[in-house]
Amino acid sequence: MAVSSCRKCFRLIILFQLLLFIGCYAAQRNKITSGFPFRYKKGTYHTVRRGQTLWAIAKTYNVSVTDITMANGISDPDKIEIGQRLFIPKAYKSKKITPTVKKSPPQKPTKKIPGLNLFGQ
């Protein structure tokens, strides 16, 4: 009886190891083939210019920020750099994007009033 029970345990252990090996292999293979460039077959490239944000780029190309971050391996959407080349999935051609950061207007020089100082004397 003990030998039969031991054989069942041994078979279960072998079966478990086999399933674990197959699962790890499948997960690793899926990890490799699910990312860029395999996931997105169609798309275009966009070079980031001064004043552009990932949100504005995504809106212009009518794709989500998540699609762009996943396609380019970006972990923080706020950290894109000028000159960075981004793959835009599902887009067919490059588009011109206006900068989202507006330049501040030039400030007028302040006039000094003679006889007044900080203490009003």
What is the name of the CATH architecture of the largest domain? Roll
CATH-defined superfamily of the largest domain: LysM domain
Portion in beta strands? 5-15%
Q: Helical content, roughly?
A: 40-55%
Shape: elongated
- Taking the alpha carbons of the first and last residues, their distance comes to 108 Å
As laid out across the biggest beta sheet, the strand order is: 1-2
What class would the helix/strand composition place it in? Answer: mainly alpha
Give me the secondary-structure topology.
Layout: H1 2-34, E1 43-47, H2 54-61, H3 65-72, E2 85-89
Antiparallel strand pairs: 1-2
How would you describe what is shown here?
By secondary structure, the protein is mainly α. It has 2 domains: 1-34; 36-102, LysM domain (Membrane-bound Lytic Murein Transglycosylase D, Chain A), CATH 3.10.350.10. 40% of the residues lie in helices and 8% in strands. The chain is built from 3 helices and 2 strands. It has a two-stranded antiparallel ribbon. The longest helix is centred in the first third of the chain and has 33 residues, at 2-34. It starts with a helix and ends in a 32-residue tail after the last strand. Mean pLDDT is 76; it is low at 30-35.
